[in-house]
Design a protein that fits this description.
The protein is an all-alpha fold. Helix content is 72%, strand content 0%.
């Protein structure tokens, strides 16, 4: 039963109950309650509808955002799949390349082993050719005659160990090259430079030459004559005797060389040391002309400015004479006979091996 029906059913007063004196206020209260209830219902319905509409709008927005996120995720997944597929292709290509390289390396190793099995002595022959080339570098670039002879001897020992009669012409050429080098004169470069250094240290002890005065002319006879006719001569002689008590004059013919100043003496000794140092450098560079010129100038300065009668100066002059006689420059052979022969033999054997493989 609704509120309206309840409001329409009115209780019937009984006979025993007393009748109310004023029933109108009760009717007004019932009507106002009905109106308030209707308004509340309307408000509740409006609020519910508004909330429903707001919820529908939020749901639609969330659904659209979710759809956008799904699309973005699908795009990212697609890119990842493409990248993975490309990486897989690259890995596959790299794997094929590595396999090809490994196959080529295996083939090369097999070929090297095959060559080694066919001609094991060719390696020793190639080593001999390398030793001959090193001997040439030692001789022509460093002028090291002893090392060049040693290297050629080592090359001959390796060829000898092969015990191959076909290599006898090469051994003969090696023997000729070694004999030619052994017949060349050898220079003791270290000994020469040490001697020059020792002479340079002695320069400070050399005495300089003193002033050389020419001999004075002999005095004329100043004896007075008794002959009266020689009175003029006697007068001159008496005058000379009288002046000798105050001034003595002697005549000397010849140039008098002045002494060197201390600064000039320092420069002289340093220049002399420089010339000996140039001679040392010329020994290692095998510059015969520079070596001889430096020693010549040193000797000329010794004679000109130092005391040649002193024992130290005399010793240095004699040593420089001996050093000037040393030969420091030689004509080396332009090439070894063995070099071309070894290169030809190695080339022929390599071509034969490649043709047979």
């Amino acid at each position: 039963m609704t509120e309206q029906q309840e409001s329409e059913v009115k209780p019937q007063p009984s006979a025993a109950a007393p009748v109310a004196n004023n029933p109108q206020p009760a009717d007004k209260k019932g009507r106002s309650g009905v109106v308030l209830g209707g308004v509340a219902i309307l408000l509740a319905l409006g609020l519910t509808g508004g909330l429903y509409l707001h919820g529908q709008q939020n749901a639609a927005a969330q659904q659209a955002e979710l759809t956008t996120l799904k699309q973005q995720l699908a795009e990212v997944m697609g890119k990842l799949d493409q990248s993975n597929s490309k990486d897989a292709e690259q890995l596959a290509t790299l794997g094929k390349s590595q396999q090809q390289l490994q196959d080529a390396l295996d083939a090369l190793q097999h070929k090297v082993l095959d060559l080694d099995d066919k001609r094991p002595n060719d390696w020793m022959l190639a080593e001999s050719e390398y030793l001959v080339r090193m001997a040439g570098r030692k001789l022509w670039l460093e002028h090291d005659l002893i090392s060049a002879i040693t290297l050629l001897g080592n090359a001959d020992e390796r060829i000898k160990a092969l015990n191959d009669p076909s290599l006898m012409p090469i051994r003969k050429a090696l023997a000729e090259d070694i004999a030619k080098l052994k017949g060349m004169p050898r220079v003791d470069r270290e000994g020469l430079t040490l001697k020059l250094a020792a002479l340079s240290d002695q320069i400070e002890l050399l005495p300089l030459s003193t002033v050389s005065m020419p001999e004075a002319k002999a005095e004329a006879d100043q004896t007075v004559s008794t002959n009266p006719d020689e009175w003029e001569s006697n007068l001159k002689k008496n005058w000379v005797k009288f002046t000798e008590n105050f001034i003595t004059i002697r005549r000397r013919d010849g140039a008098v060389e002045a002494l060197l100043s201390p600064q000039q003496e320092i420069f002289l000794r340093e220049n002399l040391k420089t010339k000996l140092l140039q001679a040392q450098l010329a020994v290692y560079r095998e510059q015969q002309a520079l070596y001889t010129d430096s020693l010549d100038k040193a000797q000329r300065w010794l004679t000109q400015y130092f005391d040649v009668d002193n024992s130290a100066t005399h010793y240095m002059q004699s040593e420089l004479d001996k050093l000037k006689g040393e030969q420091i420059q030689f004509d080396y052979p332009d090439q070894f006979k063995t070099q071309a022969m070894l290169e030809q033999v190695l080339t022929e054997r390599l071509q034969r091996i490649l043709a047979g493989s």
